[in-house]
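Bumping my old thread because nobody answered last time. Still need a sequence for this structure:
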């Protein structure tokens, strides 16, 4: 169980960091938020992978396609996060 949690955190950190490198611009996030971004991106990528390819994690969680899906999901989540964050930060005078 502890190995699974550590694995999820490590994959989340890698996927979140790669997503932040792919998306241009400054994202003011801490390391903890980068890990959360990667974990949420893993769920989004896994869900999209299941919808498109009808495959699940029955063959193991740490597969190259799972890592790629995690990065793709993290990029999608980060794009949505930056668009929603920019909309909320503008003020009307």
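Sorry it took so long. Here it is:
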């Amino acid at each position: 169980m502890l190995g699974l949690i550590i694995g999820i955190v490590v994959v989340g950190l890698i996927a979140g960091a790669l997503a932040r490198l792919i998306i241009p611009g400054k994202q003011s996030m801490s390391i903890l938020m980068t890990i959360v971004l990667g974990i949420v991106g893993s769920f989004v990528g896994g869900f999209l992978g299941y919808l498109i390819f009808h495959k699940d994690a029955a063959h193991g969680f740490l597969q190259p396609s799972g890592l790629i899906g995690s990065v793709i999901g993290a990029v999608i989540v980060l794009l949505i996060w930056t668009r929603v964050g920019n909309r909320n930060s503008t003020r009307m005078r």
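The radius of gyration is 14 Å. Let me know if any region looks off to you.
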